[in-house]
Amino acid sequence: MPPLNKTGVAYALDFDGVLCDSCLELICSAMLAIRSKWPQVLQDLVPNPLEPPDWLVSKLQKLRPLVEVGYEMILLGLLVVDEQHASIRSQQKSRPLSVGEIMENWHSQIKDQLWREYKTCDKELVDLFGKTRDEWIRQDLQGWLGKHRFYPGIVDALNFSESPLFIVTTKEKRFVCQLLKHSGVEMEEQRIYGLDAGNKLKVLKTLIKLDELKGRTLYFVEDRVETLEDACLTMLGTPVKFYLASWGYNTEEVRARAARNPQIEVIDLQTFVMKMQ
């Protein structure tokens, strides 16, 4: 990221994977949702959804780059736990799919198979996931907050930045607000664009039309290369620059792919925090 003229810059920042590491909370919420709808899947392998076993956390963390919207972790959780059961029943004759195999075949095959097998749909899982989180927060707010961590230096960077800041995320806005407040970040709610605001491209187009941003370049920082690639093509010629957060939920292959795109810059956490302040 080049030196910034702070009077001529604004930021549009993804939340999960850019500002906050919420992977453990995502896994726990998914396990709670599975327990409420398909309790037979967890059985004795995951007796406590809020303390999932290390083998499960490790694999789902590696699969996190597949999750664009939170409810998709429910599908990944169903797959990984069910495969572990099958492996145990067959006494290792049937091994679970590797992380690489799942990532390679997720969109082309596995995801559709899960929709059919569990007789569900995206709307149902969005509702289930939101209700599950709401209930967890209602019963144990501190426990829910404790499953998140902001990346080093982010809180100060947000609080002391001299440039206009916006959050553009597929997370529900009310969850973002709670986490920011808990961490001590002061941000006006109207600057937070959550799941109900529409896709990120729509939000970016809205932002660049704001009077506040006239004459400024909008820096869009995101950890999903697909989102950045779509934005590059759609917003060609607009005052927006695109950055892939290398510390986020992406892989080495994804970072190399982004680096080959002349419109995307791969940025590390230290550089990002330093330039924000």
TrEMBL record:
This is HAD family hydrolase. It comes from the Eukaryota.
